[in-house]
Give the backbone structure.
Amino acid sequence: MTNQELKNAILEAQVEATFQGHDIGAFEAVDNGYQATCRLCGGTTWLNDKGLRYSLLEDACEGEGRTT
């Protein structure tokens, strides 16, 4: 995966999380890829440099301050 493809994969994950009501922080390097955490519910989304993505974010964020 090229650097641009990785950036696009991160952007896609950020957009998806936002549409689900999550407020994820920046993706940070971890031992086996990159991970971001929702500031509201604590759920995480992860991806590696091959494009594999694994998300523990709910379809709709149920974090603090949510009324839905």
